[in-house]
Amino acid sequence: PHVELTGAIGAATLQGTVLSDHNGQVAIDALAQALQTEASARGTLGLLTGALAPKLVINLRTDHPPVAGAAFSVQRLPDAPLTITGPLQLEAGRVASEGLEIQLGPHTASVAGAVSTGESFQGSRAEVFLKTPDLAALGQLFGIGDLPSEPLQLEGAASVEGKGVSFRVNHAEVGAVRLRLNGRIADLGMPAGIDLEFDLGLPGLSAITRWLPDRSWPDGEVTARGSLVNRDDRVDISETVLTLGGAEARLQGRIELEDAPRFDVLLTADLSDLSRWQGLAGRPLPNVPVDLSARIEGNADALSFRQIDLRTGASQGQGDITVVRD
Questions:
Q1: Which of 14, 16, 23 is nearest to 46 (CA)?
Q2: pTM: predicted TM-score of the whole model, two decimal places
Q3: Which residue intervals of 98-181 are DSSP H helices?
Q4: Each residue of 78-108: pLDDT tens digit?
Q5: Residue 65: which H helix or E strand, with range?
Q6: Averaged pLDDT for residues 229-240
Q7: How far is CA 38 from CA 32, 41, 320, in A?
Q8: 252 exposure class (CB count in 10 Å sphere: 0-12, 13-18, 19+)
Q9: Which residues contact 157 (CB under 8 A, 6 or more apart)?
Q10: What is the pLDDT of residues 120-172, one digit of tens each?
Q11: Cβ contact 241:197 at 8 Å
């Protein structure tokens, strides 16, 4: 069959075939064209005597998504050529795909998984791969500003489990920034109760100068790696290591999950050259090594620094400090 229509959305054509085999399985092979948009679907729709259960290979191509979207009252679509291809099926209350390939201008993505069509997202899962030559340009297509004009490559996954969610970032790079995450939030109602392993690398902290324009951070790569372990009533901080500008800091302890989360963390820091931090301090600092250890206790309203042991060159200081917010 072949049908040509003219209406409010302009000229449109629809052609294809619908067949049923001897088992009652309905198959479709269709192509629709309108508004510089072409969509096709090929596959099966299910049994004549059963519920709709489509298993299709789809292909959608449009030169101007906002024009096509406006015909169906869909607003704020990105204005760049869009292509979506791959398998798609509806099964047991879920929309699933073994891998949809998406291209939006020069930006590409691949999505595989399943999303529940019910009120709950229980059982939903997704694996995502995203690659763009310019993250700032991609953000502008969706009205998002202040993103770096750097290439991005991201590979990760997420799944809904009970009241919580599991997620991982196997690999993420934005320019010289790299990130790896593996985590789980047992209850989204208590996001502080998280299990997390992380590994972050930055070429420096120059981006922070927009908030501290009169200060400068030491040069050098920034790294952060460690893990958080959820123990229901608290989160344990396994040895977490931060490095910047020849300095290394280590954190180990726990966060009590009360109404106002309470910290009990041991901090140790080693600065090989204090003078590298004078740009941030805003005053000259001596070229001496610094060793610091302290136990941090309390919450955002009252924070105590106990058992402070500070060694600067040949000098040494010890004591306790409590900071209380008015």
A1: 23
A2: 0.76
A3: 135-141
A4: 999 999 999 999 877 889 999 999 999 999 9
A5: helix 65-70
A6: 87
A7: 6, 10, 70
A8: middle
A9: 113, 125, 126, 127, 128, 167, 168, 170
A10: 788 899 999 999 999 999 999 999 988 888 999 999 999 998 888 999 999 99
A11: no
Cβ atoms of residues 34 and 13 within 8 Å: yes
Q: Let me know: does 121 contact 115? Beta carbons within 8 Å.
A: yes
**DSSP 8-state class, residue 221:** -
| H/E segment holding residue 254 | strand 247-256
What pLDDT is stored for residue 5 in this prediction?
Answer: 46
Which residues, 6+ apart, have CB-to-CB distance to 125 below 8 Å?
A: 113, 114, 157, 158, 159, 160
| Phi, psi dihedral angles at 135 (to 5 degrees) | -65, -35
Tell me the average pLDDT across 184-203. 86
- In 3D, which of 54, 140, 137, 64 has the Cα closest to residue 91? 54
- Residues of the chain by 3-state class (helix, strand, coil), percent to 5: 10, 60, 35
Residue with tokens 């590298």: 276
- Cβ-contact 47, 26 below 8 angstroms: yes
